[in-house]
Structures are given as C-alpha cells and as structure tokens.
Design brief:
Structural class: alpha/beta
InterPro entries: ComplexI_NDUFA9_subunit, NAD(P)-bd_dom, NAD(P)-bd_dom_sf
GO molecular function, one term: protein-containing complex binding
Strand content: 5-15%
Radius of gyration: 26 Å
Shape: globular
Protein name: NAD(P)-binding Rossmann-fold superfamily protein
Mean pLDDT: 73
Low-confidence stretches: 1-6, 8-109
Number of helices: 12
Strand order of the largest sheet: 3-2-1-4-5-6-11
CATH class of one domain: Alpha Beta
Bound molecules: NADP nicotinamide-adenine-dinucleotide phosphate
Distance between the termini: 59 Å
Order of helices and strands: HHHHEHEEEHEHEEEEHHHEHEH
Helix content: 40-55%
CATH architecture of one domain: 3-Layer(aba) Sandwich
Number of strands: 11
Largest sheet: 7 strands, parallel
CATH superfamily of one domain: NAD(P)-binding Rossmann-like Domain
GO biological process, one term: ubiquinone biosynthetic process
Length: 351
C-alpha cells in the first residue's frame, strides 16, 4: 500500500512541477488547490459543454437533419471549427495540416506571411426585399443600423418610405447567379423571401429551385448564415398547394445540406400586417391581429387541445415580429440552426 502511494507520488511530482513552473513563468496562479480544482472541473464537465449563449435556445422539434452535435455548432459559430466526417480524405488532410511535420520549422521560428485581409462581412442581403415580408425585413435591419442590400427583379418598391433609400437595391434574377454573385462578397447573412403561388410548376420553381439556387450560391461565396422564410404545412391534404410545399421542403433540404451550421428555417403560417399593393395599403392585420390575439389567450390553448382540429391550426404572426426575428437570426451567431415554428419565431423576436 505504502509502496503504491510512493510510486504514485513519484509519477505525479514531475508533471506537477512542470505545470506549476510553466504557469508561474506566465504569471498564472498555479497553487495546487487551483490546479486540482480546475482539473477536477474539466473532468466533471461533459466534453460537449457549450457556451452559455447557446444554452436554452431549443432546436425546433422535428428539425430533421439538424442532428449534428451542438458542440460542433458552438465551435463553428465562433468561427473556429471545420468539421469533417472522420475517415474522409478531408479529415485526413485537416489532421495532417494541424500536426507539426518533422521538416517544418518550430512555431516560433516560422516567418509570418502577410495575408491580404478578407472583406469584412457585415452586410445583410434580403432576396425579395421589395415584397411584403422582405420590405419589413429591410426596414427592421435598416432601423438596427445594419448595411442592407436587396436582390429582386424589379428594383426598389414604388413607395418612398424613408428606409428605402438606405437599402442598396440590386436588380437581378436569383436564377442567374453570375449577375448577382458579386453582391455576396461582404455579406454575413442572407434572408430569402422568394416565393409565389400559381401552377404546380410555378410554385415548385419559385419556392424550390429559386431558393436552392440562392442557397448554393451563398454557400459557394462563403456566406455564414442563411434565413429562409418557408411555411408551416398545417397538415393540409397533399394535393393542396402541392408545388408550394414540395418547393419549400426542397429548399429546406438544400439549406440543411449546404449550410448545416448557419441555416435557419422559419415556418410561419399566415403573416399579417400592412401589405402595400401599388399605392394601396392592405391592412391584413384586421384579420390577423384578432386571430393572433385569440391564439395567445386561454381560448387559443383550448383550440389547440381539440382533437384533429388543434394540430392543424397554426396561429398567424405579425410581419414586424417575424422581420425582427429574421434580422436577429441572420446577424447573430448564437441563434442555432434548424427549423423554427411560429412560437419560437415570436420568442426570438422578444429578445
Ligand atoms: N405572406 C404570407 O402570409 C406568408 C405566409 C407564409 C410564408 N410566406 C413566405 O414568405 C415569403 C415572402 O412572402 P411575401 O408575401 O412577402 O411575397 P411577395 O410579396 O410576393 O414577395 C416575393 C419577393 O420575391 C421577389 N422575387 C420573386 N422571384 C424572384 C426572382 N426570380 N429573383 C429575385 N427576386 C424574386 C419579388 O420581387 P420581384 O418580383 O421584383 O423579383 C418579391 O420581392 C414567401 O416565400 C412566402 O412563401 C408568406
């Protein structure tokens, strides 16, 4: 027993002296209690402990495909991680790049190679910024003081509200990336509001293909965050608006695949607020606001409790609430990737 204790002490002593010596030379308090407690703490913490900023932000239930570890998201959000599937060629390259090679000089002797500074990515690009939802998103972002661009085919909206002149209006078709790819250079986050109703083909193309093109182009240009205004399906029969929902889900798949760490999918139902049509303003809130209020009241809870009917009813959301949440999600790395339903969007807007 005594022999064992002496052996253990002989094993531990050099490493303790080594650590405390190095720590002292950096002016770090390396008292034994502190060293022991920090090592104990690090053993007790789960290896995937995440920064407090991401804790408590739930991933939406049913966020299929967003099942990667939150540890990886947290590291990626801080711009430090490059996550590769183990065993892939990319993983091998990354590993060997991180290991010091016998021929490479030690770190301290290596010459610093001056690199040209990458562009500062502090701009938001709203695709469809002259539409109903996109206009409110541009307005919310301008009011926050962000740099904002909008991409759409017809340029700025017809009205002249003060925020319009603070947006950089890019005329272009999302289906033609060469005409607008350059506008992504300094973009931190993209918010896509492209969608349409019409024939099956139109809806599939505009809700699906257009957004898939936008996602692919943004990912190729190194955009970190992408917010997609999708839609809740509300359990409608499959033949109702089939092209619309097929298109939306196709775009969602592209986001999960291409931007797994920064893709956020909003699934609202009816969005209400003031919609401008030419010189007219349609007050959609006349219907939407009372409905939203009902859902927020105790009566709303009763409706949700109804068998069959309840799950089909998703409350409407005010366009300003959704716009605020979209800007936050596109700018803020602590908003985790995944699907957000109308309740989560509302909660995010309250932050
Ligand atoms: N409104 C609702 O109640 C509601 C509910 C749930 C989900 N959503 C979704 O929210 C999104 C926004 O809806 P919204 O009501 O604001 O629609 P909207 O007013 O019709 O706006 C659509 C925008 O997309 C742009 N656009 C269309 N095709 C384009 C293309 N090929 N290239 C570039 N820009 C293009 C349009 O501008 P140009 O025509 O000038 O190109 C317009 O700015 C849609 O995806 C919709 O499905 C809406």
């Amino acid at each position: 027993m005594a022999l064992l204790a002496v052996r253990k002490a002989r094993l531990l002593l050099p490493s303790f002296l080594e650590v405390s010596g190095v720590a002292r030379s950096f002016g770090i308090d390396s008292s034994p209690t502190r060293l022991i407690s920090s090592s104990l703490i690090s053993r007790m913490l789960p290896s995937h402990a995440e920064p407090s900023g991401t804790a408590g932000m739930p991933l939406a239930a049913g966020s299929e495909g967003f099942s990667f570890a939150r540890r990886e998201f947290a590291a990626a959000a801080s711009g430090q991680a490059q996550v590769f599937a183990p065993g892939t060629e990319a993983a091998d390259k990354a590993r060997s790049a991180s290991l010091p090679s016998s021929s490479s000089p030690p770190q301290s002797a290596a010459k610093t190679v001056p690199a040209s500074a990458p562009p500062v990515r502090d701009r938001l690009l709203v695709i469809g910024g002259n539409g109903f939802v996109g206009g409110h998103i541009c307005k919310a972002a301008v009011e926050k003081g962000y740099k904002v661009s909008s991409l759409n085919r017809s340029g700025p909206p017809q009205h002249s509200e003060s925020w319009v002149k603070h947006v950089d209006w890019i005329r272009g078709n999302v289906f033609e990336p060469p005409s607008w790819r350059h506008s992504l250079k300094d973009v931190q986050g993209v918010i896509s509001c492209v969608g349409a109703f019409g024939s099956y083909e139109t809806m599939k193309r505009v809700c699906g293909d257009a957004n898939v093109t936008a996602v692919n182009t943004a990912a190729e240009e190194g955009v970190k965050r992408f917010v997609f205004i999708s839609a809740a399906d509300m359990g409608l029969p499959t033949f109702v608006l089939r092209g619309y929902f097929e298109g939306k889900r196709e775009a969602e798949r592209a986001i999960r695949e291409k931007l797994p760490y920064g893709g956020i999918i909003f699934r609202p139902s009816f969005i209400h607020g003031n919609r401008r049509v030419g010189s007219l303003t349609l007050p959609l809130g006349l219907v939407g606001s009372p409905l939203e209020a009902i859902f927020k009241s105790s009566a709303g809870k009763w409706v949700h409790g109804l068998p069959l009917v309840g799950p089909l009813i998703v409350p409407p959301i005010n366009v300003e609430t959704l716009a605020k949440a979209a800007v936050l999600a596109a700018k803020n790395n602590v908003v985790p990737p995944g699907i957000m339903d109308v309740w989560q969007i509302s909660r995010l807007a309250e932050r």
